[in-house]
Design the sequence.
């Protein structure tokens, strides 16, 4: 330790090494997590951080880091510790009131953007918007679209609304309510990433820090998907599309729900991990 350092102070490099060692058993990306936490603490980017390996962390910074590492060790998502998460081209504020946006959900955004021409004033609804990730990414890509984002949770809607203003997106409005309870008018496109994990699913305990109501329907995993698939036709314009995200093993069951409800062109897309992730169909004449 250098002569100018205060007692107990450590360098960024030492904190990074100790932090990533500590997160080894609980994280898939211990080094990255440690970098993100320390960069956040010092208000630096990750590249700035690597150029300042000799900078000292004072005792307050060390104890903040210590508390964050302890929370991460308990399985809390890094996005909650940082308070934000990148999604699509957006930086979104996330709190424990909303699901952490997943890269897999970009499959749904890409598909939605293909369905809306850039030069038309399409009406789009995102049901159960959470942080606003899907609605806001569509609004960013399609500035002429009028996007309605709904959620049953008042707390989630407040986060989504805040994200719209942070990202300066004016073409999104918000409404509180369960699925179609909050929807008015007819839409060219309805999208949703509803809770689709079955109640006894072994993956749920690992997700315990995220809102349970955004993850599981408390039933077979298809309950909310069924409600949305059966209810959307009453809110779709002729030839409007419904696109939903679902679990990696639900593709066949979800296609069957679309087909039984009478949609045309029912199809499924895969995510980056090659899992079936989103299914959609067109409502209207075959
Ligand atoms: N994709 C999330 C997960 O498996 C679940 C999201 C959801 O239920 N809509 O962790």
Sequence:
């Amino acid at each position: 330790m250098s002569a100018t350092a205060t007692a107990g102070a450590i360098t960024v490099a030492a904190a990074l090494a100790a932090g990533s060692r500590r997160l080894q058993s609980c994280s898939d990306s211990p080094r990255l997590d440690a970098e993100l936490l320390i960069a956040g603490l010092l208000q630096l980017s990750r590249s700035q951080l690597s150029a300042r390996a000799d900078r000292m962390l004072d005792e307050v910074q060390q104890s903040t880091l210590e508390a964050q590492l302890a929370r991460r060790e308990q399985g809390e998502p890094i996005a909650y510790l940082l308070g934000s998460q990148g999604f699509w081209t957006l930086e979104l504020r996330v709190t424990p009131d909303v699901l952490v946006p997943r890269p897999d959900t970009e499959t749904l955004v890409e598909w939605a953007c293909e369905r809306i021409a850039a030069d038309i004033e399409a009406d789009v609804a995102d049901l159960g918007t959470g942080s606003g990730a899907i609605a806001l990414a569509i609004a960013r890509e399609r500035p002429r679209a009028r996007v309605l984002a709904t959620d049953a949770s008042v707390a989630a809607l407040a986060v989504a609304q805040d994200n719209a203003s942070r990202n300066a997106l004016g073409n999104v409005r918000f409404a509180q309510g369960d699925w179609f309870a909050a929807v008015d008018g007819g839409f060219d496109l309805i999208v949703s990433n509803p809770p689709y994990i079955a109640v006894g699913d072994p993956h749920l305990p690992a997700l315990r820090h995220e809102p349970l109501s955004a993850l599981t329907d408390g039933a077979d995993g298809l309950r909310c998907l069924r409600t949305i698939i059966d209810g959307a036709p009453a809110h779709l314009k002729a030839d409007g599309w419904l696109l939903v995200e679902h679990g990696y093993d639900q593709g066949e069951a979800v296609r069957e729900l679309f087909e039984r409800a009478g949609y045309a062109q029912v199809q499924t897309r895969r995510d980056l991990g090659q899992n079936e992730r989103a299914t959609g169909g067109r409502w209207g004449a075959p």
Q: What stands out?
A: The pocket of glutamine is lined by residues 102, 193-197, 207, 215 (CB under 6 Å).
